[in-house]
Design a protein that fits this description.
The protein has 2 domains: about 5-70, 2-Layer Sandwich (Alpha-Beta Plaits); about 75-195, Homeodomain-like (Arc Repressor Mutant, subunit A, Orthogonal Bundle). The chain is α+β, with helices and mostly antiparallel strands. Helix 3 packs across helix 5 and helix 3 (about 75-90) crosses helix 6. The chain has helices spanning about 20-30, 55-65, 75-90, 95-100, 100-110, 115-125, 130-145, 150-160, 165-175, 180-185; strands spanning about 5-15, 35-40, 45-50, 70. A hairpin with a 2-residue loop joins strand 2 (about 35-40) and strand 3 (about 45-50). A 4-stranded antiparallel beta sheet has the order 2-3-1-4.
Length: about 200
């Protein structure tokens, strides 16, 4: 006797899914495994699959193979929301005033006090929220330097540094290169933004 097909549609949260390329990789992997993607956005996907053929742990294995993971706890889901908000703020927003008020932006976007956001982030990560923000800013600075569109003074202002010296000092402490040394490198030492935490 044949087992009846039992399709399940569910919304899942996905760890380390922080860019459009991530969405393409996940969608492709799911489709190869007969999982229909109804909707996919940064951090989540709505999928439909035959639960007789595929189980939740197999979906997780598909994600793990590609460097992602399934998020199951509410606090871990919140940490991913924090990461997405920080990445949006630093890498995707053109409103440079937003970065100046990063704590206000995160509070407004996430609906919790900055203290709560920071505490939950630190509890579930290897680094503090402030360190994560600094690492994201440094990666954005590398991108802006490589683009050669802005002066270092403009980049310092855009990234909310009090001076070029402050930016340069923090850049050196994180990368072990001065800004000038970094500009003259023949290799790309940028890090993937989803791997910064």
């Amino acid at each position: 006797m044949n087992e009846q097909i039992k399709y399940i549609t569910e919304k899942i949260q996905i760890k380390n899914m922080v860019c459009d390329s991530c969405k393409k990789v996940i969608k492709s992997s799911f489709e190869k495994n007969n999982i229909h993607v109804q909707q996919i956005e940064l951090g989540f996907a709505e999928i439909t699959y035959d639960s007789n053929i595929l189980k939740q742990n197999e979906i997780r294995e598909i994600l793990l193979t590609e460097g992602f993971d399934l998020i199951t706890s509410k606090e871990k889901q919140f940490v991913e929301e924090i990461k997405h908000a920080v990445i949006d703020l630093i890498h995707h927003m053109n409103n440079i005033d937003s970065i100046v008020r990063k704590s206000e932006y995160l509070v407004e976007k996430l609906g919790h006090s900055y203290q709560t956001i920071s505490k939950i982030f630190s509890k579930h990560g290897a680094i503090t929220l402030e360190k994560y923000i600094i690492l994201q800013k440094i990666e954005r600075i590398k991108e802006l330097i490589a683009g050669d569109e802005y002066t270092l003074s403009e980049i310092a202002y855009m990234m909310d540094y009090s001076s070029v010296q402050h930016l340069s000092s923090q850049f050196k402490s994180i990368t072990n290169y001065t800004v000038s040394e970094y500009k003259n490198l023949d290799i790309n030492i940028r890090k993937s933004i989803e791997k910064l935490c």
